[in-house]
Amino acid sequence: MRKGQKTRQMIVEQSRKLFAEKGYDMTKTMHIADQCGVSEATIYKYFNSKLDLLMETISHEKLEIPESSSLHHKRTEELLELYVRQLTRAVLTNFEQYAILFRETPLHEEISKKYVQYTYEQNEVSKELQVRINNGDLSGVCDFELLNVGIISSIIAMSTHHRIHKGKQTSLFDEQKIEQFVDFILHGALRS
């Protein structure tokens, strides 16, 4: 990677952290420049505006999915479990991007479009789940998009609470917590 590419990448990474932590309006380009050890002019060499920089911080990771031919043979609970686990890991892996999306969506139309794109994007697993919802095989879920928003917002809220109120910068979600979360989504608080 060339020096210019490294500088640009460093600006994006530091901006992502700051936007996720402080929000767009509270993050000044001067602070980003200080964190990166560059001038504000350097930031504007790579990005036309602070909003362009914000948009760049929201890279999108697609969920890893198995081959679609194997999905039809899975039980509905297995399929839902696979999807919830994948989505949970995607949110945790890209936590700052999702935090920015949730925080900035009401304030920026461009971010709102990205939020809709990421939250409602269909993959083979979600398409198969939607078919099963439509067929009545998944009676507890009638709105797949609402399920997505619920999962994503729950992870963000729990992680933010952990960071703010527990004073811990480490992730709340280790493998055991991920499994507990998936189990809760699948079976609820009162397991029979």
Automatic annotation (TrEMBL):
<dbReference type="Pfam" id="PF00440">
    <property type="entry name" value="TetR_N"/>
</dbReference>
<feature type="DNA-binding region" description="H-T-H motif">
    <location>
        <begin position="28"/>
        <end position="47"/>
    </location>
</feature>
<keyword id="KW-0678">Repressor</keyword>
<keyword id="KW-0238">DNA-binding</keyword>
<dbReference type="GO" id="GO:0003677">
    <property type="term" value="F:DNA binding"/>
</dbReference>
<protein>
    <submittedName>
        <fullName>TetR/AcrR family transcriptional regulator</fullName>
    </submittedName>
</protein>
<dbReference type="InterPro" id="IPR036271">
    <property type="entry name" value="Tet_transcr_reg_TetR-rel_C_sf"/>
</dbReference>
<dbReference type="InterPro" id="IPR009057">
    <property type="entry name" value="Homeodomain-like_sf"/>
</dbReference>
<dbReference type="InterPro" id="IPR001647">
    <property type="entry name" value="HTH_TetR"/>
</dbReference>
<feature type="domain" description="HTH tetR-type">
    <location>
        <begin position="5"/>
        <end position="65"/>
    </location>
</feature>
<dbReference type="InterPro" id="IPR050624">
    <property type="entry name" value="HTH-type_Tx_Regulator"/>
</dbReference>
